[in-house]
Amino acid sequence: MKNTLEPAPNKTVNPERWKIGNLLFSQKTAPYLFIAPFVLSFLLFFLYPITNSVIMSFQEILPGERTFIGLENYSRLLNDHFYRALYNTTIYTLLTLIILIPIPLVLAVILNSKLTFARNFFKSALFIPALTSTVIAGVIFRLMFGQQDSALMNSLLIQLGFSPLQWTNNAYTAMFLMVALASWKWIGINILYFLAALQSISKDLYEAAAIDGAGPWTQFRRITLPLLKPVTVFVVTISIIGGIRMFEESYIFWGASSPADIGLTLSVYLYQQGFDYFDLGFGAAIGLVILFITLVFNLIQWKFFGLFKKEED
Amino acid sequence: MDDRQSKGGKRLFQIGSLLLLAVFTFLALFPFYALLLASFKPVTELLRFGLNLKLQPELLSWDNYRYLFSDAAQKYLTWYKNSVLVTALATLITLFFSSMVGYALAIYQFRGKNVILTLILVMLMVPGEILLLPLFEQTIALGLIDTYWGVILPAAVAPFVVFFFRQYALGLPRELLDAARIDGCSEFGIFFRIMAPLMAPAFGAMGILTALGAWNNFMWPLIVLRSEEMYTLPIGLYGLLTPYGNNYNILISGSVLTILPIIILFLFFQRFFISGMTLGGVKQ
């Protein structure tokens, strides 16, 4: 099982041609040497661990001892922590989608218009949060959302006539913190994706539409939106993957265990079980659930966008 | 948005969009101001009252930064050095291998090429979490736990970077290939001496993106790195965040100095950041 360090598949060469000079000059063998690092890394750091992950999920793993236990890890998933993690992950993913698709799209359209002032300044400014690590973003957010009455957000609440909140101790504010952090960090990146797609739309289309008497709103609805479909599908896809595998936004506020699981997500659950409790088999089962849910979410999305229909519209 | 719009409509669009952009720009940048302000305040003040926007000039000082460079905060400088080292190594290695793979996928016709392209897309679609536990076991088995290689090697051939280089290499002039072959250049010579320099913008974009990713990387180093003197900045800073904030003086000024170089780099090399983000995803 451990021996996956096989050479890359370039075995078709005759023994007498195995001279290094020939290899480097031959157009037949060179591509295989070029891709050898990928093949090696794929086998060692992807295929082997994935296979192992599936096997591990059917095992009970103790130091130096692995026992096959069938579906027991999966049946153990039916517990309140897991349901909570599943619930939090789903809500988090949906909320980030609701925020991180339409808002960046609108901002990108605005930034793409020649009428807008200081476009480059705004583009850069909106992108800067994407440069921070989640840890540093977490430092900032924890300071701003401190528990003290005088801390930034609480003092704002008090001034507006509300009572201060224990931000990291309540299920709703916990979700708010995670979604706010993710939205802050990702908005600029999604703007860039939409902006790049907008810039590749031909100006002629808009001119032709204008001649036909289409106003800006009709142009947006009939030209911009349909032509943005591929990039939208792409952004939704990566947002779904990012949402379901979310770990850092929760981990920086609560570590691996939060009060009443308010910050528990599937990835945090995996980390907690795998690395804090060393329950590797159970952790592997959680990993496969993450993979499965990602696929289901994306299949629904692709169906929604009509990706499985062939060339109609 | 076109010429036929009335003057009033244009004006309204301009004012509305400016307002909207101003609001979002404020939301994007304000947290940095809050961090910067906190970094100049005494820790005791932060612990008692939390971060607030009272300026209180008499409280502001460079003390936290001075502390950062004193012997007491030696570990911060060690983490900084580690982060620079890991980022540089990871970037060089990822660029070296991924550019070769991407180039070969664009330039050569060979059996198995489509299989590899499919595998790359599959790798992009699979959430890395399911690899975490088996990779952890593997890292232990290979003796790479608590080493920089354990952090760097699993990501040495990054599917996204390979994909980006392939897209870029598709546009390289093929005539150069034949000319170089006639001149007796080896296939590797062609890549390193002729094609790689032509891909400089791709190296720029992917270099910056990979470096940013490595600099900010958290989850995998958190698992691999075990001893404090091996920590990178995100892991070290995270450790300071949790134990009841008694290290806030390093944490906050340390966070400023962790993000500042990246922002400066970004302002200089915006073009590369932006092309790195966009090309791979959109042009398909």
UniProtKB/TrEMBL annotation, chain A:
Q: Say which domain of life the source belongs to.
A: Bacteria
Q: Where in the cell is it found?
A: Cell membrane
The record's InterPro entries line, in alphabetical order, gives: MetI-like (IPR000515), MetI-like_sf (IPR035906), UgpAE/MalFG_permease (IPR050809)
Keywords linked to the UniProt accession: Cell membrane, Membrane, Transmembrane, Transmembrane helix, Transport
SUPFAM superfamilies listed in its UniProt record: MetI-like
Please name the CDD domains in this protein's record.
TM_PBP2 (cd06261)
Please identify the protein, giving its name as recorded: L-arabinose ABC transporter membrane protein
UniProt source species: Desmospora activa DSM 45169
**The organism's lineage?**
Bacteria, Bacillati, Bacillota, Bacilli, Bacillales
TrEMBL record, chain B:
Supply the source organism for this entry: Desmospora activa DSM 45169
Q: Does the keyword Transport apply?
A: yes
> Which parts of the chain span the membrane according to its record?
12-36, 84-108, 115-136, 148-169, 190-215, 248-269
The record's principal subcellular location, in a coarse class, is membrane
Per UniProt, residues of the ABC transmembrane type-1 domain are 80-269
Name the protein family.
Answer: Belongs to the binding-protein-dependent transport system permease family.
Name any one Pfam family assigned in the record.
BPD_transp_1
Q: Which InterPro entries match?
A: MetI-like, MetI-like_sf
What is this protein's name? L-arabinose ABC transporter membrane protein
